[in-house]
């Protein structure tokens, strides 16, 4: 009997993401059944901005941590290269998100004054802790979750039509729908290049589960926002 072929790093990671996706999908399904649709859509766009504004600083912190680990950790050079590359792909997306909300009639200052929920702090804050005080590899699990379910144009059309918000409000969502599949492929390639052991796989799995669960909690915590 031949030996079983070992599953790829990316395959193991994707398996963990797929196990968590039903929880996320259920949270979004409930969100889009919430009234009033216009104000709940604005709340979602604010959440999207709150998450995006942390993306570049998080990856920059991870890249700097990789620099500190060079010579002592064999993953550090490849991880640092990935994070620096991905920073260039995510730069200014938070600014686009503010522009989208401005198109909805929201004052950017009012958007920035919305205090992020405890759930958002748990979602993003755990990554800072793990990156700076444990291992920057864990951030890759978080990114994999955020890139795992690009919004389909048909779904964005439905949200636009039901909310009554103008098309420019959804520019960033549509851009992510186009870019996320490519970004997911880059994550898979990075995972498969890394010489991961069981310890690495377990820590990425923890990051994936935490990211899925706290993202779902962040969505469930949304309430209609009346911003002007």
Explain what this protein looks like in three dimensions.
The chain starts with 8 loop residues before the first helix and ends in an 8-residue tail after the last helix. It has 10 helices and no strands. The protein has helices at 9-31, 37-69, 76-90, 93-103, 108-113, 118-133, 138-146, 153-163, 171-193, 198-220. Helix 1 packs antiparallel against helix 9 (171-193) and helix 1 packs parallel to helix 10 (198-220). It has a single domain, classed as Heme Oxygenase, Chain A. The longest helix has 33 residues, at 37-69. With 228 residues, it is mainly alpha-helical.
Sum up the structure in keywords.
228 residues, mainly alpha, Heme Oxygenase, Chain A
Describe, in short, the structure shown:
It is built from ten helices and no strands. With 228 residues, it is mainly α. It has a single domain, classed as Up-down Bundle (Heme Oxygenase, Chain A), CATH 1.20.910.10.
Distance between the termini: 68 Å
Q: Could you give me the name of the CATH homologous superfamily?
A: Heme oxygenase-like
**Strand composition percent:** under 5%
Largest sheet: none
CATH topology: Heme Oxygenase, Chain A
The rough form would be described as globular
Overall CATH class: Mainly Alpha
| Secondary structural class | mainly alpha
Number of strands: 0
The average pLDDT value, as a whole number, equals 92
The helix/strand series, from N terminus to C terminus, equals HHHHHHHHHH
